[in-house]
Amino acid sequence: MFKIFYPKEYIESVFMLTPEKLKGLGIDTIMFDIDNTLVPFYIRKATDEVKEYFESLAKEGINVCILSNSKRERTEDFICGLDIPYVYRARKPLNKGLNKLIKRMGVLPSHCLIVGDQIFTDVLVGNLNGIYSVLVKKADKRDEWITAVKRPFEKIVLFFYFRSLKNDKK
Ligand SMILES: [Mg+2]
C-alpha cells in the first residue's frame, strides 16, 4: 500500500549524500528541493555549508541543480549568483518543471536523484518519473502552513513505509 509514495531512502541530512555514495548508485545528477531540505524555510540564502557541499559534488563530476516549488524571488535569493541550473515554481509532483530541468541539463532520469523533505511533492515526482527518490528529515521543526497541512497525511504514509522496512529486514 502507498508504495508510489515510498522514498528509495530516508536520511537525516542532505549532506549524507556524498559524491562517493552517489557514484555508488550510478547517479550523475542530483536535484535539490530548497525549503527544509538544504536550509530551514526561513533562511533566505545558501549557507556556506551548502555552498561547500555543492562544490564538493561538482568537483567529483556530479551535476547539481535545484527543483523548487517556491517563487522565483525565493529561489533566486537562495541561489545568490551560484552557477547552478534551477527551476522555480516547479509544481512538484507535476512533471512540467522536472521535464524542463531534465531537458536543460541533458541528463537521463535513471541517472538522477531527487532529494526533498516532502513525500507528496519531492518523493512523488521522483517516483512517477523513474528518478531515485530520497526523503530527508526536515531541516527545521516548523513548516510553512502550506506544508504543515500535508504532514498528518505524510505521517500515515511514513508509518507504513517504516513498517515495510522492518518487514524487509525480517
Ligand atoms: Mg521542501
Description:
The chain is an alpha/beta fold and 170 residues long. The protein has one domain: 3-Layer(aba) Sandwich (Rossmann fold). It is 41% helix and 14% strand. The chain contains seven helices and six strands. The chain has helices at 19-24, 48-59, 72-79, 96-105, 119-128, 145-148, 151-169; strands spanning 9-11, 29-32, 63-67, 86-87, 112-116, 132-136. Strands 1-6-5-2-3-4 form a six-stranded parallel sheet, with helices on both faces. The radius of gyration is 15 Å and the shape is globular. It binds magnesium ion (MG). The site of magnesium ion (MG) has 7 residues, from loops. Magnesium ion binds next to loops.
Task: Please specify the SSE layout and strand pairing.
Blueprint: E1 9-11, H1 19-24, E2 29-32, H2 48-59, E3 63-67, H3 72-79, E4 86-87, H4 96-105, E5 112-116, H5 119-128, E6 132-136, H6 145-148, H7 151-169
Parallel strand pairs: 1-6, 2-3, 2-5, 3-4, 5-6
Bound molecules: magnesium ion.
